[in-house]
Amino acid sequence: MSLLDLDQNKVTYFDLNNELNIPKDNTIQLGKDREALDAFMAENVIPNTLKFDSQKEHFDYLIENVFIDPKVVEQYDFAFIERLYDYLQEQNFQFKSFMAAYKFYAQYALKTNDGAYYVEGYVDRVAMNALFYANGDEQLAMNLADEMIHQRYQPATPSFLNAARARRGELVSCFILQATDDMNSIGRTINSALQLSKIGGGVGINLSNLREAGSPIKGIENAASGVVPVMKLLEDSFTYSNQMGQRNGAGVVYLSVFHPDIMAFLATKKENADEKVRIKTLSMGVTVPDKFYDLIKRDEKMYLFSPYDVEREYGTEFNYVDITAEYDNMVANPAIKKTTINARDLENELSKMQQESGYPYIINIDTVNRANPIAGKVISSNLCSEILQVQKPSIINNEQQYEQLGTDVSCNLGSTNIVNLMETDDFEKSIDTMVRALTSVSDASDLDIVPSVQHGNQELHAIGLGAMGLHAMFAKNHMYYGDEEALDFTNMYFMMLNYYTLKASNNLARERQETFFDFEKSAYADGSYFDAYTEAPMAPKTEKVRQIFAKHHVPNQADWVALKEQVMQDGLYNAYRMAIAPTGSISYVNDATASLHPIINKIEERQEKKIGKIYYPAPYLDADTIPYYESAYNIDMRKVIDVYAAAQQHVDQGMAMTLFMRSTVPEELYEWKQGRTDKMTTRDLNILRNYAYSKGIKSIYYIRTYTDDMEEFGVNECESCSI
């Protein structure tokens, strides 16, 4: 029975998995998931996987049928490849849930061209990743294989999916572009969005430099169309372009809250917006300087400034003017055209749109740049709001060529699996291996189709190592999400991640005798970056967290002082090292909770195309851990913000922090709701947004709302069950 002929009536695993949703004797039937997993392997995977008599025969088949790139294999003696496979198979890897196995084989495993048979399993995909990213280095390949087969490290979807494949998209996860205020740049930006969406992940584009609608062009009044028509062009471009059919094209546009088109920008997401301006699939975000929060606090009117006039007066693009510092000067300057709006009206509009659509994302741009250790200015972010890197504008001539080549952003991502990494025998070796794997993606990226992105990658060697499984770590160790022990663990884990990624990047710089561009102008070079770590001891505060970290070397002040000296002397290879991306299907494969978020349901329900509903139990769910698995929709979002803030102080880029809200809010959740309506209001989101800003959060990703009419039965009946 081939995959093409697979008849749901002839297999048992879907029914077994669905029994997770049916309590028996007031108990969640967790054993049914293991039965479903066993049935899936026996009924689907084993009979539908091509068999080979040897690894050599397998590889010959893969190369002859153009499944894998022969250049990857040619870097190694085949006897080593066989040893690598022997090691991987000795580890006896087993999926822990039906969802993990199903997601891997549905989304990641190579299949025959007709989709009828699998030609690789999990061990094969791990081996291909290890061989590809090690680039001929046998020891690194073994180290990578060790990290991945034990699921301490997980490359992001495009990297894991495409590694070593002969027919593939790019390995890079995401990109960031900016348009300048001329038609040549706009045209080039649209072309770049098409090209990047075709080969890679999501594309973020900042439009703040573009003059507003109604602005004059060459003396002709009301000639400019503003940012909304450009958004429409970009949305159509992303709809058209995708990664060789493997991933839908996706993009986000960002605009400053001080841009005159800000209200029209937000209105494009309204359900009742005119079809000519309504944006359906393009994501949107706003960059928010400190001055906006100040104006809100004072309940003052705010001025919106013409980007064209600002650029003319300051001699630099709108994105690069410090609005917080220059606000009063810009208000007083009669040469800068400006309009006014009440700051709190705009604040309420932001929250109203977040209630209705989940957008816009929020980038606290001054917070970002205060923490940015690299020379230059961060002006935008990516599709998920966690990539925050410096950019320089380009100048495009009439032939669509670069008169001045600026820098835009590409970033490749990977995640640590927190629960599994804490079990490593050598934290430093594990992180060093991961940094080398991610750097390999940066080094191997050929992005000449967008020279500004290519230039940025070549200068910065930026990577983004993140994390997933934080809530699982809390539950497994009997910590409540957001409590003192949870915050203590989060602080220590990301301090460790910061220290060892710095050490790994420093090792690379020393080995290669190369640093990222303008290292000497960075806060790393003058040592100031390290002050927070060298001036005060940083150690676990609670006994439980001390015990969790007992087997690892937690860097002390002396370690940080030594690292500071090494970095100042030899530099860093990677300008950026860490970013906390959202994790989707790859979390299931790892049997990890997503990113740093709390879970939504103890038994999660997923709607799969052509299959129906599949159920996924939270990792390590049992009678002991169930009290520690509170749904995100029942948690005070200030606890989520606190957890992210504990991590953010150590993360050089950003974090894709989602807030989970209920349309009807339990009174006990937020003290400000007492005596007021129990419906979610713009006030609730305003308070949380300002709280996040006060805690040093760099970005707020999506706002997810659980509405009254979305109440479900079945799985939700299990929420209060004992196990």
From TrEMBL:
Residues 560-582 form the Ribonucleotide reductase large subunit domain. Keywords: Allosteric enzyme, ATP-binding, Deoxyribonucleotide synthesis, Disulfide bond, Nucleotide-binding, Oxidoreductase. GO terms for cellular component: ribonucleoside-diphosphate reductase complex. The keyword Nucleotide-binding applies. GO terms for biological process: deoxyribonucleotide biosynthetic process. It catalyses: a 2'-deoxyribonucleoside 5'-diphosphate + [thioredoxin]-disulfide + H2O = a ribonucleoside 5'-diphosphate + [thioredoxin]-dithiol. Its EC number is 1.17.4.1. GO terms for molecular function: ATP binding; ribonucleoside-diphosphate reductase activity, thioredoxin disulfide as acceptor. Belongs to the ribonucleoside diphosphate reductase large chain family. PANTHER family: RIBONUCLEOSIDE-DIPHOSPHATE REDUCTASE 2 SUBUNIT ALPHA (PTHR11573:SF30), RIBONUCLEOSIDE-DIPHOSPHATE REDUCTASE LARGE CHAIN (PTHR11573). Provides the precursors necessary for DNA synthesis. Catalyzes the biosynthesis of deoxyribonucleotides from the corresponding ribonucleotides. This is Ribonucleoside-diphosphate reductase. It comes from Weissella minor.
